[in-house]
Design brief:
Layout (H helix, E strand, L loop, with lengths): L2 H33 L5 H26 L3
């Protein structure tokens, strides 16, 4: 497997993780707003931060794949 194929596979895995994390974050925010309790704001903020980190990794590896050295 060459470098571009490896990076493509890696980007696809990170994209799947990103979309799952995004759905979890949206659900947690909805649950927190609808019930006014249960989940803490810190938990929603933390899940948003993890989702943003996955998005950043997804874009980084996509840029590396598209613009090799």
């Amino acid at each position: 497997m060459n470098r571009k194929d490896y990076l493509t596979k890696l980007v696809n895995r990170i994209q799947v993780s990103f979309y799952i994390l995004l759905l979890v974050t949206i659900y947690e925010a909805w649950y927190w707003l609808a019930h006014n309790s249960g989940l803490s704001f810190v938990l929603v903020l933390l899940s948003g931060a993890v989702t943003y980190f996955a998005y950043t990794l997804m874009k980084l590896f996509d840029d590396i794949k598209n613009h090799p050295e």
